[in-house]
Amino acid sequence: MKVSQLLPVTAQGLAPFLARALAPVLALAVLASPALADPFRLIVTDLETPLVPNSVMDLALQEGYFDRAGVEVELVRVQQTPLALAALQAGEGEMANISVDALLQVIARGGADLRAVTSPNKSLPYLIAAAPTVQGVEGLAGTRFGVGRLGSLDHSLSMLVLGAAGIEPEGLDIVTLGQPNVRAQALLAGQIDATTMSIGTLLAMPDPDAVQVLIDVDAYYAAAPVVMKVNAVPAAVLETRGDEVEAVIEALVLASRDYAADGALWAEAMARARPDVDRADLDQLATTYAASWSVNGGLQRQELEHTMEWLAGTEDFADLEVPPMSQWLDFAPLDHVLARIGIADDMDMDVHSR
């Protein structure tokens, strides 16, 4: 054997030599851990960052909360819950922000094995606005009240709120008008005397001061503590990507705590996300949402039980049985997160009773 055959591989030939030697190893490594290379896809039902606490999902990405929690997140944007549910069931995402109503319906029909794991925005920021001629809440009796449609979310919840305020829903003249902006226009035009809208719709009106707020956001939710939206995941995702599920929850909770502690942080982040919105409006919204953040993950058993009882009496469940909580909710991922980061002792507190 020649001496030259015992010499090491030259520098010039080292790269192709290593490439041939390591190619099988690298290929096996890639095949063995595909999940590590894939982003965690979070399906949201807003095509742009919304002007509500649900914005925390967009802002957690924009402001680096997901990165700091150690999870790579990609937002998948669709319009409304039905498309979000369809995308989640088709495997186009690992988690989706959807309505509790729709989640319970699909599970009641045996259509999916999904579990709610957190609620970054439990309720819509609804309020009841009225014409200046209405003399207080009691003055709503017998007036024309605008709703989206009979049986719609705003109709059902508002009747619950008004009933708690001593107003008999049967005595109202219910006017179906469709979308919130249409109802707001009808209120300004004097076609109705009052209606339900979000705080964002109110601020978007040409002249918000032309109407009065009879029942504000906090009072509305206190009278109807119904959890409207949750983040749900397929059971298979909990099994295979449970650590990432917890990381997403942790990021959302920590962002919510920061915005609850200092509303200006939210307004500043929103100004970057939504430069089309006046900063004064963002500051006003930040004040409105001061007590609305899910600083402990938003899953309070008492509120969830109340939500199930309310849903059982709606038209959507006239022919369906509301499934038990164990079939559509899993507290464990959130409990694991709270065990690591602690419980915030100022709001969103029912976590102690689990």
UniProtKB/TrEMBL annotation:
List where in the cell it is found: Periplasm
Annotated signal sequence range: 1-37
In terms of Gene3D superfamilies, this protein maps to:
Periplasmic binding protein-like II
User: Which SUPFAM superfamilies has this protein been placed in?
Assistant: Periplasmic binding protein-like II (SSF53850)
Read off the InterPro entries from this record.
Answer: SsuA/THI5
Q: Looking at the keywords, is Nucleus present?
A: no
Query: What is the designated name of this protein?
Result: ABC transporter substrate-binding protein
Please give the organism: Halodurantibacterium flavum
